[in-house]
């Protein structure tokens, strides 16, 4: 697994940096002989090929059911938000769900103050959790995998992250919904987004905010990435507009390349993914993240800078801002 990841990362090419205010975006390109053919969340729901619902009438916060009626696997990214049913959720990890299947997926709540049906099924909220909160969630998922093999987050830390983001954005949500924060700042984010258009053949982004790398996301199926580009860019821009940083010069190619090289140098832990493939987890001194590998193909990779985002706990694992490990069963 390590050598497969290193080979894929060695092939990543950095495009010309795009810059606006305190944000630098390096488009990522990757030549691949084979890619996994799949749908993404938005297109599957738009064409009525997927149904997402609570696991039963009573619901269970850390889990949802996805019915994929398509003749292709369905890719849902870590951090993609679903809204509706009894409360809004985000994916705890990237999943590639089998065609013609029903799968229970691990999720976190992003709407603390609601636990009643607004609809019977979920829709695509149009948002991906911003890297700052996503990193808090992912670090606790990584710890949970090491301790129990479960893709479970520290729900309390996730709620704290959303609350802090809402406070930074000066947004009050009646149900503590992450989506309300993103909706309130949507026009600002869209105004910034036009400075970071998707390039032909692009398959990912590496983003620096305030002169420091925040993270990167890469989806190796080019046509799928095109559909996800706006969502991903907006997730990073949400953090950028809330950071109190002055306008900076572009973060150069050398710094961006070092971030990618650091990923390749990490040791990997492997876990059976929900659906197809293997969920790979990596951690270094300056970063941590995950990747989904299926039949030797890299499907999705996400990495986050560690400074200021996570901290070591006594057992050597990674914990969120709150350092709590209480995996709550419900959102009430």
Write a structural description.
With 332 residues, this protein is of the alpha+beta class. It has helices at residues 2-10, 41-46, 131-148, 155-168, 178-184, 186-193, 222-242, 253-265; strands at residues 12-14, 18-20, 23-30, 39-40, 50-54, 63-68, 74-76, 80-84, 89-91, 95-97, 101-109, 122-128, 204-209, 212-219, 268-272, 278-283, 287-294, 297-305, 311-312, 318-319. Strands 1, 2, 3, 13, 14, 15, 16, 17 and 18 form a nine-stranded antiparallel sheet that branches. Helix 1 (2-10) packs antiparallel against helix 8, helix 3 (131-148) packs antiparallel against helix 4 (155-168) and helix 6 (186-193) packs across helix 7. The longest helix is centred in the C-terminal third of the chain and has 21 residues, at 222-242. The chain starts with a helix and ends in a 13-residue tail after the last strand.
Instruction: Summarize the helix and strand pattern as letters.
Output: HEEEEHEEEEEEEEHHHHEEHHEEEEEE
| Total DSSP E strands | 20
**How many angstroms does the end-to-end distance come to?**
41 Å
Class derived from helix and strand content: alpha+beta
Q: Given the structure, what is the number of helices?
A: 8
Average pLDDT: 91
Low-confidence stretches: 308-332
How many whole angstroms does the radius of gyration measure?
Answer: 18 Å
Q: Largest sheet, described in full? A: 9 strands, antiparallel
Measured by DSSP, the beta-strand proportion falls in: 25-35%
The coarse overall form would be globular
- Helical percent range? 25-40%
């Amino acid at each position: 697994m390590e050598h497969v990841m290193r080979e894929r990362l060695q092939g990543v090419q950095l495009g010309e940096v795009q810059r606006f205010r305190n944000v630098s975006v390096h488009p990522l390109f990757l030549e691949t002989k084979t890619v996994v053919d799949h749908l993404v969340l938005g297109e599957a729901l738009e064409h009525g090929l997927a149904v997402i619902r609570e696991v039963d009438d009573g619901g269970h916060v850390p889990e949802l059911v996805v019915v994929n009626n398509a003749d292709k696997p369905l890719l849902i990214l870590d951090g993609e938000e679903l809204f509706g049913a009894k409360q809004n959720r985000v994916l705890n990890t990237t999943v590639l769900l089998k065609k013609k299947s029903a799968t229970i997926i691990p999720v976190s709540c992003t709407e603390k103050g609601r636990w009643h049906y607004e609809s019977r099924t979920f829709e695509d909220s149009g948002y991906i959790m911003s890297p700052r909160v996503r990193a808090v969630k992912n670090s606790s998922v990584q710890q949970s995998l090491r301790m129990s093999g479960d893709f479970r987050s520290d729900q309390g830390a996730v709620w704290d992250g959303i609350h802090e983001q809402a406070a930074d954005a000066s947004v009050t949500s009646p149900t503590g919904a992450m989506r309300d924060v993103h909706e309130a700042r949507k026009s600002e984010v869209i105004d910034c987004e036009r400075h970071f258009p998707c390039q032909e053949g692009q398959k990912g982004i590496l983003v620096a905010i305030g002169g420091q790398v925040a993270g990167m996301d890469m989806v190796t199926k080019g046509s799928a990435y095109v559909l996800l580009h706006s969502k991903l860019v907006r997730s990073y821009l949400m953090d950028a507009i809330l950071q109190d940083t002055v306008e900076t010069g572009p973060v150069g190619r050398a710094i961006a390349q070092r971030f990618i090289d650091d990923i390749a140098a990490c040791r990997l832990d492997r876990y059976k993914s929900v659906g197809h493939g293997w969920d790979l987890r990596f951690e270094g001194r300056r970063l941590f993240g995950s990747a989904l590998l299926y039949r030797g193909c890299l499907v999705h990779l996400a990495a986050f800078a560690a400074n200021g985002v996570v901290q070591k706990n006594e057992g050597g694992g990674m914990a969120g801002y709150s350092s709590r490990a209480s995996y709550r069963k419900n959102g009430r």
